[in-house]
Amino acid sequence: VGSITASDYTNYLQVIKTGVNTAAADITGVAVRGLQVFGKTIGADTPTLDNIQKLLTEGKDTQMSKLVGNEKVVAGGIASGIESAMSWFVGGPIGSIASLGAVAANNAWIEGSNAVIDNSGNSYASAAEAKANGVFTYRNLTTEENAMRTALMTSLEIAGESVGVPGMSKIMKGVPIGQGVDAVIAGIKRTALGLGNEQLSELATTTAQMAVDKFTSFGLNQNATWSDYAKALQDTALATTVAVGTSGSISTALNNMRTAVTTVRDENSITATPLAYNSVVAKDANGQNVFARGIPGPAHGSRPDRSRIAERPSQQRRCTAITVNCIVER
After folding, report:
1. Nearest to 14 by CA among 74, 87, 97
2. Kind plus residue range of the DSSP H or E element containing 139
């Protein structure tokens, strides 16, 4: 069989753990930021919240520092996929855009607060990193500069997420496991189309955000080259693919669980509840009542005679999770 050699993808568990923890830290960080802003608004000091935000950031950086090469990109993609899926399930498209925009804003603000720029326009993630590279003359972004950069980055992120809504709508339908090969193939094709849409929107967002850091006086990548841009696009494509895979897996699991629960609930309701003749919801694909097509029904107020429905072997009763109607499939 052979042995696994060292590569960018051997540290599977650490990559997944970092992605999950990054998502949790991002979401928590947004909540803490909201409390910080509220505290500043009412004139209160927020040292405890500031320390929590710092710990969250340091925690993410520490875990990412343990990864190498594309592992960091994959972990970031996992985090993005988790954040996208959970925010979509909680708030739909609008909730997802708002949530991801808030995460982008918080991360951009932290990045701008910690970064330093030397006299040549080179930027470093922190003063410590600058000193480690032999740079001792540098400046921080002013509060106004950081606010402008954060506003631009957040606006571009929200615009990109808005453009990607059609793709995410496809992805978040998941793959209907257990509903036949054709349904599974259709689900995979739908997800692939969603991935294409997401790739275009994310690559456009990366291009625009990189332009901000390249061409503005407060940008944090003013000496970026074409090779840097190409690498950024490559990383974005990989991270987006991983994010879509993560979101698609989560949506597939949740949607199929919801389908199973709803189907069982509806079947129990149909079996246990005495239904009147006219209230039995048994329709064909055209919405016509089965009993209206010549299958005698029971008297009003009594149980329907299900054995008469079973007389048609070519028909099968099924409860759909979406309509919660029982239909007859041919």
Report:
1. 74
2. strand 138-140
How far is the C-alpha of 156 from the C-alpha of 145, rounded, in Å?
Answer: 17
Q: 204-207 — which CB contacts under 8 Å span 24+ positions?
A: 204/160, 204/163, 205/156, 205/157, 205/159, 205/160, 206/232, 206/233, 206/236, 207/233
Residue 264 CB neighbour total at 10 angstroms: 11
Per-residue pLDDT of 106-132, as tens digits, reads 999 999 999 999 999 899 999 999 999
Backbone angles phi, psi at 67, to 5 degrees: -100, 160
> What pLDDT digit, counting tens, does each position of 175-217 carry?
988 788 999 999 999 999 999 999 999 999 999 999 999 999 9
Q: How far apart are CA 47 and CA 195, in angstroms?
A: 42
**Helix ranges, the chain (H):** 12-41, 47-65, 70-114, 127-132, 143-163, 165-171, 181-215, 226-272, 306-309
319: three-class secondary structure by DSSP: strand
* Position 314 pLDDT exceeds 50: no
